[in-house]
Each structure stands twice: as structure tokens, then as C-alpha cells.
Design brief:
Layout lengths: L2 E8 L3 H12 L4 E4 L20 E2 L10 E3 L1 H10 L2 H10 L4 E4 L3 E4 L4 H14 L3 E3 L4 E7 L4 E6 L5 E8 L14 H8 L4 E7 L3 E3 L11 E11 L2 E11 L3 E3 L1 H10 L7 E6 L6 H15 L4 H6 L4 H11 L12 H12 L1 E3 L1 E4 L7 E6 L17 E3 L7 E2 L4 H30 L1
Parallel strand pairs: 1-2, 1-10, 2-7, 10-20
Antiparallel strand pairs: 3-6, 4-21, 5-6, 8-9, 9-10, 11-19, 12-15, 12-18, 13-14, 13-16, 14-15, 16-17
Helix pairs in contact: 1-4, 1-11, 2-11, 7-10
């Protein structure tokens, strides 16, 4: 007997699960497939294991958090917005909390509780979940209007509708290998070039390895590329080969796709103080301890591990007394504090990226239903689409919203097909 369903969904991440819930709640026979052993494997690592479910920013300011193609998301957001999503989890017994930056987390701080709700609701509505199923090929029969899914070592599966929600290329260890792009392209879709986003930045400065682990708060990081410039304020972290942290990840979304030699980075260690305020502070430092060594002086402005590099860049002797400094040397020090140069060497890899930039061109997808404009019966949702957001819960909301819209769209298209058959 053939394995069949009304709707087949590839991927059991946020988009796939919510699509399945929408389809199954509409009374359709739904089958979900995933190469992993459990639901939402990528969800487990979001928000450092706490799962930043969404962002509670009100409409329309929510869309300030969408980096690419925000207008395309409007219709899907109308089907399931951030408040709808929060109510969904509350209704199913999972309370949420709102933290700094309107970031929403489960009160338990466990991503597993979000996955538990998704799997429970899927099963309660009759969806069938197939784990350890790796789809190798998909075909479509125009005579029967059915898709056929072929696997590595299982019998093929047939469905009247297909939802591709198999993620992007980020964190490939969670099963996001980019297969969805190959399937979409085979059905005639254009794939906007892919690049890692929300990803650490690599640096080529010699001192970076020695600064690994240094965490900075209340800094400003500026990037200049071409005629563009972007400055972000917040926290960052030095890694063994570059920088990471909230400011860096967000900045990477602006830089994604930029030429390596076209980007200049500058770190402002004291954004709360302008040059004049720093001059007054140095004056106070001079009045209270003119005989202090430069190394001691620098330590009052910087993390201790960063002092030697500052001394080298200014060509200063660490034992030199502060009172020997000229006005020009003070200005050079202030210049380094306000615009410390970092040598950009490119974006981190897909294995480090939170999301994938690029994907299926949104002009080829109906925004209200997520239906393909290229292939009858095909729907697309989640990271496979050329829509992405900044850090703060926006990308999971994109996945949940587009997944829900795709599920509703697929179910409605089946109902419409049945009505047409009855009329004829």
C-alpha cells in the first residue's frame, strides 16, 4: 500500500511544525519528515538554549527588526503575529516572559519546553511525524497532481501538497544542509545568492588571539563599506579569530555580501564620552597622578589585556610617566579610544551563522499563502525564503508566521480543489 497524505512537510523546525499544526487543525492528513531524531533540533540551540521565541515589539515597529524583505512578511504576520504566537504557547500551557529588548523566552528558560508544545499539538491534531527520513528527490506528476518523495532507504511517499520548510545552511550540524534550495530550484525557483548572517566577524589583527575571551559592554562598533556606514551600540566579545556578540551579529547582517577589502571597522571604547569629555577626564587624571606610568593610566580606561596593544599602536613606553605626554599624544590616545581600527577579514562560516541570508526569491511566492508561483501545490516557509531578521527573536517569528501561513494556504487550496471537483 502506498504511503500517502494530503500534505507533506519537509522539516520539523519552527516553520515546519507550525505549518503542520495549521494543516492538521484544518482536518487534513499531514505527514512531517525530518532527517533528525526529534522535533526542532535547531530550536534547542537558539537563545543559548533558552529559545528566544519572538520579539514583543508592537506593530509596526516590529518590522524594524526585519533586515530583508519586510513587506513580504506583512501578510503572514497578519495570519500569526507575535502576540498570536505568545497566546498560542500560553494556551497550550507554556508561559512566556519578556526581557530586555522585548525578547520573549519561556519562563522555564528551556528551549525543550517550546519543542514539547509543538510536538504535542501536532500529535493531538493527528499529524504523523517521520524521523530519520532524508529526502533525496522529489517529483511531481501533473496527471495525478501528486508529489512523490523519495528517501535513502524508505519507500516513497505521496502527497497532494508539499511544504518546503527544511531550513537554510546555517548550523549544518542540526540538519540544515541546504537541500531545500535544491528542491525549490528544481521546481523553477530562483535562489538569491546565499551567505551566512548573524555570524561572527573574522579579523586579521595579530593581537586578536591574545584578546580571546575579553567581553566588552557599552561599546560602539562602526562599519564602513562603499558609501555606507553603520554604527551599533551594545556588547561584543573577542574570539580566537575575531569578534562576536549581539552588536557584531547584528552588524554582520548589514555586511553580508560585502567585498572583504571594502569594509573598515572601528571600535569606540567609550561611546558615552565625546572627545571633549575625555580631555577633561585626562586632565583630572593628570592632576591626581601626573607621575603615573602610561601602563597604569591606560588600565583605568581599558581591560588590562588590551593595554599593551594600545601602547604599541601609539609607540609609547609603558614606564613613561603621564606628565611627559604632549598635547598631541593625548589627542592620539583619545583618537584610539574613539576609533580603534580593526582589520576586517570576512564573515564567519555557515557553521557559525545563526541564519542564512538569501534563498528563494520572494517575488516567486504568494505572500498571503506562501504558495509557489512556479509550481502548483508547492508552498515554502521559514529560512528557505529570502527573508531574515536581526537578533532578538525576529527570525523565529518569521519561521512561525510563514509556516502558519503556508499551512493555512495548503489546507485552503485542497478545500478549493474539492469544491471545484464537486461543481464539475
Amino acid at each position: 500500500m502506498k504511503r500517502m497524505a494530503d500534505i507533506a512537510i519537509l522539516g520539523m523546525g519552527a516553520a515546519g511544525c507550525m505549518a503542520g499544526i495549521a494543516c492538521a487543525s484544518a482536518g487534513k492528513r499531514v505527514a512531517l519528515f525530518d532527517r533528525n531524531e526529534k522535533v526542532g533540533k535547531k530550536i534547542y540551540i537558539t537563545g543559548k538554549g533558552r529559545c528566544n521565541v519572538t520579539n514583543a515589539a508592537p506593530f509596526p515597529s516590529f518590522f524594524d527588526g526585519i533586515a530583508r524583505n519586510p513587506r513580504f512578511l506583512h501578510s503572514a504576520f497578519a495570519s500569526m503575529n507575535n502576540l498570536d504566537l505568545m497566546n498560542f504557547f500560553a494556551k497550550h500551557g507554556q508561559p512566556l516572559k519578556v526581557e530586555r529588548g522585548e525578547r520573549v523566552f519561556p519562563t522555564s528558560d528551556h528551549a525543550s519546553d517550546i519543542n514539547r508544545v509543538l510536538e504535542t499539538v501536532l500529535r493531538e491534531n493527528g499529524a504523523t511525524l517521520y524521523f530519520h527520513h532524508c529526502v533525496k528527490q522529489i517529483t511531481y506528476d501533473g496527471k495525478t497532481n501528486r508529489f512523490a518523495l523519495f528517501f535513502t532507504d524508505q519507500e516513497p511517499f505521496f502527497a497532494s501538497r508539499l511544504i518546503l520548510a527544511c531550513g537554510g545552511k546555517s548550523y549544518p550540524s542540526t540538519g540544515s544542509t541546504g537541500d531545500g534550495y535544491r528542491f525549490a530550484e528544481a521546481f523553477g525557483h530562483t535562489i538569491v545568492p546565499l551567505s551566512p548572517a548573524l555570524v561572527p566577524l573574522c579579523l586579521q589583527d595579530d593581537f586578536v588571539a591574545s584578546w580571546e575571551g575579553i567581553s566588552l559592554k557599552n561599546i560602539a562598533l562602526t562599519a564602513k563599506w562603499g558609501k555606507k556606514k553603520k554604527t551599533l551600540f551594545g556588547e561584543m566579545l573577542f574570539t580566537h579569530d575575531g569578534i562576536s556578540g549581539p552588536v557584531v551579529l547584528t552588524l554582520s547582517s548589514f555586511l553580508s555580501g560585502s567585498a572583504q577589502n571594502d569594509v573598515s571597522l572601528f571600535l569606540d571604547w567609550k561611546p558615552a564620552l565625546d572627545e571633549e569629555a575625555l580631555r577633561h577626564r585626562l586632565l583630572r587624571e593628570r592632576q591626581s597622578g601626573a607621575n603615573r606610568s602610561l601602563k597604569s593610566l591606560f588600565s583605568s580606561f581599558l581591560p588590562k589585556r588590551c593595554v599593551d596593544v594600545f601602547l604599541q599602536k601609539g609607540e609609547w613606553n609603558e614606564d613613561c610617566p603621564f606628565h611627559s605626554w604632549t598635547k598631541a599624544e593625548e589627542e592620539r590616545f583619545i583618537g584610539l579610544l574613539k576609533a580603534f581600527p580593526l582589520s576586517y577579514a570576512g564573515l564567519g562560516s555557515f557553521s557559525q551563522a545563526v541564519i542564512t541570508r538569501g534563498g528563494v526569491a520572494v517575488k516567486e511566492v504568494w505572500p498571503k499563502t506562501m504558495a509557489s508561483r512556479k509550481q502548483k501545490g508547492l508552498f515554502l516557509a521559514g529560512e528557505i525564503l529570502d527573508v531574515d531578521g536581526f537578533t532578538g527573536g525576529y527570525n523565529l517569528q518569521i519561521a512561525f508566521s510563514t509556516g502558519y501561513a503556508a499551512g493555512l494556504g495548503a489546507a485552503a487550496s485542497l478545500d478549493e480543489e474539492c469544491r471545484e471537483e464537486e461543481e464539475t
